[in-house]
């Protein structure tokens, strides 16, 4: 597992959790791939997964984990018990330049070289790259987003406007290192036509976008209920309160726009574009990494009666996200071993804005994921025999 944003809250939590799982200090609570539906699917064992990554921060991983424990998110006893494993991972985290070193193509090659070196030094079958870095502001539309020739020219021109870091990392993973890739953030990544074409040519499985962990997860469970019962939802308002690094990042009006769009897209797909969906995210520093989301649903029922539903969801978002990125690493490894390429629509189960799929209803996504995993396991076994 190669994390982009390897010292952030999500990657740190996943690394601590993976180490604890490998040492059998905790049970795999919260991991979809540990459920009985996946008993017949040959997935990498927790102890077989090695972690490395990129980050712009040089804070030691163990120090970052202790900070999260001090804030109440991680158990101190677990962090202390896996300290040696965290130090080993820290040695495999490479510092990422905040601006490209040379042309953007040269920067991409440097990032890809780190991934290949990690794979070779550890003798790994494959590296799955997962972007869990901070949300970036979405850039203005540019010619290189639509045509491969314009993209190639921009990558080779030292004077061209820089592409988002998420895009450089995605190209490095998919097109140069040949690594399966998942984007767990709403940043640009591969989300424009020229980059999707590039990914399609790279013959590796990819998945995205923007992890579905809390409020949006609940919405995609409840919205199909209203639709199935013939109730007309008039409005679905939401408010999110959070602190920590995510709260500070999303306090930037430019950075928060992609998050707001991805959180509401599923509701409109499930209920229609006429539903009013006001949503805001507020930075409340004293909450730290504990996130609280409030939703107010106003619907119309039989004989013009009004229905109101209010929900409150409160959890550490990183502890919701961490098992999902471990699941994604295991499932993308399965896909790669079976020769699956391009966007894996069935992995939309994990995302707010799934690549290759317009399905947002959680129950249907769950069924599709299990069916896909069982089919892909058979396909992989056949490939190994052949």
TrEMBL record:
Any one Pfam family match given in the protein's UniProt record, by short name: Inos-1-P_synth
GO biological process: inositol biosynthetic process; phospholipid biosynthetic process
Myo-inositol-1-phosphate synthase GAPDH-like domain segment(s): 214-318
InterPro entries found in the cross-reference section: Myo-inos-1-P_Synthase, Myo-inos-1-P_Synthase_GAPDH, NAD(P)-bd_dom_sf
Protein family: Belongs to the myo-inositol 1-phosphate synthase family.
Database matches in PANTHER family: MYO-INOSITOL-1 PHOSPHATE SYNTHASE (PTHR11510)
Designated name of the protein: Myo-inositol-1-phosphate synthase
Lineage: Bacteria, Bacillati, Actinomycetota, Actinomycetes, Micrococcales
